[in-house]
Specification:
globular; 12 helices; 2 domains; D-Maltodextrin-Binding Protein, domain 2; alpha/beta; ten-stranded mixed beta sheet
């Protein structure tokens, strides 16, 4: 998370803000925004970490803005269904997207992607970050990352890792792990994070890279075993689980994040209302604790800072896509 904080704090944020803000100029906002219910679209199935974060901010928005707020799950097609839904919605601030790193990865995979996160949306605010965690089946005879690497090297291609879909942050984390360790493990994509964890619990795969919020209940129940967190520091929720670096694998730190985007052309005044509501929510001890309880860390960035972060993420994932030969859909 420190790396993201540094990225959003640099001078390039100003340029990113200008580029993104220019998309919002055509519209004008009513003084009484919002004037009706708000829909928050999530490109993931219900039950995962991103869905939980969406429902948490939806509750806060409803309380602060005095309008109903609906969370609409539209998983599938690498989140493009959700992105297309919001991109085509009226640019008035009443339809919003919960974006994740998938938005940046999409451009890294396919620069001609449509919708395009840098062209078809304007940034509102970040909500939170969460660690990724490497978990394995409790029946797999490994107790550490070192054990896992040795096991994989002894039997190339025998281990399968699940993800909520190809080209998601979880898939790219797996590819990064493969590059850094030299192991041959097989990617098995599912239709969502819940399903990917289900594949691990059912014994169909042996390992997965999951968001901490989604995996935490199973880790606590002992049905899966956490080997490492892909972060610079240990998670306070799993203080006995080492970081990847501590486990002997450097260069695989990856932070997942949740952010709000609006359709291009959304009035700046509406963006301000929404960004301020996120900021005020982040100041609530109850809201912050709810994020922490689900394994996420509050992280609020302004529209300008979020724009800069998105640009940096596109560059980061583009480099990995080239190294791992992952281009194209």
């Amino acid at each position: 998370m420190r790396a993201l904080a540094c990225a959003v704090g640099n001078a390039a944020a100003v340029a990113a803000f200008i580029a993104f803000a220019s998309l919002a100029l055509p519209g004008t906002a009513r003084a009484d925004f919002p004037e009706r219910s708000i829909t928050i679209v999530v490109g993931a199935s219900a039950g995962g970490g991103v869905d939980a974060a969406a429902r948490l901010i939806a509750k806060s928005f409803a309380e602060q803005l005095h309008q109903p707020v609906v969370v609409e799950n539209r998983p599938g097609a690498y989140s493009r269904i959700a992105y297309a839904t919001v991109a085509k919605a009226p640019a008035d601030g009443h339809t919003l997207l919960i974006a994740t790193a998938t938005a940046a990865i999409d451009l890294a995979i396919d620069p001609a992607a449509s919708p395009n996160v840098m062209r078809d949306f304007v940034p509102v605010a970040t909500l939170a970050t969460t660690d990724l965690v490497l978990v394995v089946s409790a029946s797999l005879p490994v107790r550490s990352v070192e054990d896992l690497v040795a096991y994989a090297r002894a039997a190339p291609g025998s281990l399968n890792f699940s993800t909520p879909g190809a080209h998601t942050i979880y898939h790219l984390e797996g590819e990064l792990f493969k590059l850094r360790t030299g192991v041959d493990i097989v990617h098995v994509p599912y239709k969502g994070l819940v399903q990917a964890l289900g594949g691990l619990l059912n014994g169909d795969v042996q390992m997965t890279f999951s968001s901490l919020p989604s995996a935490l209940p199973f880790i606590k129940a002992g049905t899966v075993r956490a080997l490492a967190v892909a972060s610079a520091e240990r998670s306070p929720l799993l203080p006995d689980v080492p970081t990847m670096s501590e486990a002997g694998v450097d260069g695989v730190d990856t932070t997942a994040w949740y952010a709000i985007l609006a359709p291009a052309g959304t009035p700046a005044s509406a963006i301000d209302v929404l960004a301020n509501a996120v900021r005020d929510a982040s100041r609530s001890s109850g809201y912050r604790q709810a994020l922490l309880d689900m394994g996420a860390s509050p992280f609020t960035a302004t529209p300008a800072e979020l724009g800069d972060m998105l640009r940096a993420e596109v560059v980061k994932w583009s480099e990995l896509v080239k190294r791992a030969h992952l281009g194209g859909r």
